[in-house]
Amino acid sequence: MAIGASSAKAGEETDTITERAHGPQVRRRLGRADLRAVPEARREVRELLRHWGRPGRSEIAELLTSELVTNALVHTDDDAVLTAVVSPRGLRVEVRDFVARRPHLRAPDTGDGTHGRGLVLVQSLADAWGVRSHGVGKSVWFELGAEAA
């Protein structure tokens, strides 16, 4: 499934909220290892979802977005692209990076501090999620359905 999928190249500069055929969306280039992008991505998703869903759904979307963005920036040494699309079916957030190595879902270890919980949160809170390979790199995505909103 490729709803809201991003085919942007790492060099594209796109930081916008736009209205597309499938609905409002955010597309944002994330610079390599630029962790300032995490709160900026949360803010943009919050703005996109200002009038969407039941109380709490936007906060879940923000949390899961920050997990995917953080993973892409911390575990790869390359740029990434965030795409978030609201459609009649719900919200889809996708973070594409340009490194083929797939993320591993791992059980958090109590000795790990705050590391190792990101994909567990995504798996627990998203209605659907997954990893999709590209010619160069991959996309990690999640969806929150409108029917639950």
List the helices and strands in order: EEHHEEHEE
* CATH homolog superfamily: Histidine kinase-like ATPase, C-terminal domain
Strand % is 25-35%
**What overall geometry do the principal axes of the alpha carbons give?**
globular
Instruction: Examine the coordinates and then state which fold CATH places here, giving the name of the CATH topology.
Output: Heat Shock Protein 90
Alpha plus pi helix count:
3
Describe this structure as you would to a colleague.
The protein has helices spanning 37-48, 57-75, 118-125; strands at residues 15-20, 23-30, 80-87, 90-97, 128-133, 138-145. Strands 1-2-3-4-6-5 form a six-stranded antiparallel sheet, with helices on one face. Residues 1-17 have low confidence and may be disordered. It has one domain (15-148): Heat Shock Protein 90. A hairpin with a 4-residue loop joins strand 5 and strand 6 (138-145). It is globular, with a radius of gyration of 14 Å. Helix content is 26%, strand content 30%. By secondary structure, it is of the alpha+beta class.
Top keywords for this entry?
HATPase_C_sf; Heat Shock Protein 90; alpha+beta; six-stranded antiparallel β-sheet; disordered N terminus; protein serine/threonine kinase activity
Summarize the structure.
It contains three helices and six strands. It is an alpha+beta fold.
Describe the secondary-structure layout.
Blueprint: E1 15-20, E2 23-30, H1 37-48, H2 57-75, E3 80-87, E4 90-97, H3 118-125, E5 128-133, E6 138-145
Antiparallel strand pairs: 1-2, 2-3, 3-4, 4-6, 5-6
